[in-house]
């Protein structure tokens, strides 16, 4: 269910196991914040239905842009999250083993 409480101007997003920390401005999803910082998270549809971006929320709170993201109640209760439709409501730590930086040697452009 969407969280109608106002978001703070900026929260911190930490990506594990890499240990990267970045800003997650209000109004951006976790996926958008990571991309703006040059970090590629696994993704596909970007609307919460394909589950390609699914990862584990280690700490923090999120609110979903869609009423029913593609997670079962059990998955949500166990800490699964969809960064493509989740906005931070506090500082957040995600476990995303497939995350990598973009723009380094041999990575000139964003992967499709």
UniProtKB/TrEMBL annotation:
Q: Which domain of life is it from?
A: Bacteria
Q: Which residues form a coiled coil?
A: none
2Fe-2S ferredoxin-type domain spans which residues?
A: 11-100
**Which cofactor(s) does the record list?**
[2Fe-2S] cluster
InterPro entries cross-referenced by the UniProt entry? 2Fe-2S_ferredoxin-like_sf (IPR036010), 2Fe-2S_ferredoxin-type (IPR001041), Beta-grasp_dom_sf (IPR012675)
Q: Which UniProt keywords apply?
A: 2Fe-2S, Electron transport, Iron, Iron-sulfur, Metal-binding, Transport
| Pfam family for this entry, one | Fer2
Which ranges does the record mark as transmembrane?
none
User: What family does this belong to?
Assistant: Belongs to the 2Fe2S plant-type ferredoxin family.
Q: What is this protein called?
A: (2Fe-2S)-binding protein
| Organism from which the protein derives | Sphaerotilus microaerophilus
């Amino acid at each position: 269910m969407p969280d109608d409480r106002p978001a703070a101007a900026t929260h911190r997003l930490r990506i594990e196991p890499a240990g990267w920390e970045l800003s997650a401005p209000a109004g951006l999803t976790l996926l958008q914040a990571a991309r703006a910082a040059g970090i590629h998270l696994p993704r596909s549809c970007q609307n919460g239905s394909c589950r390609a971006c699914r990862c584990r929320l280690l700490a923090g709170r999120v609110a979903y842009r869609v009423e029913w993201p593609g997670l079962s109640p059990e998955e949500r209760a166990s800490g699964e999250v969809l960064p493509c439709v989740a906005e931070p409501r506090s500082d957040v730590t995600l476990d995303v083993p497939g995350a990598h930086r973009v723009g380094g040697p041999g990575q000139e452009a964003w992967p499709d």
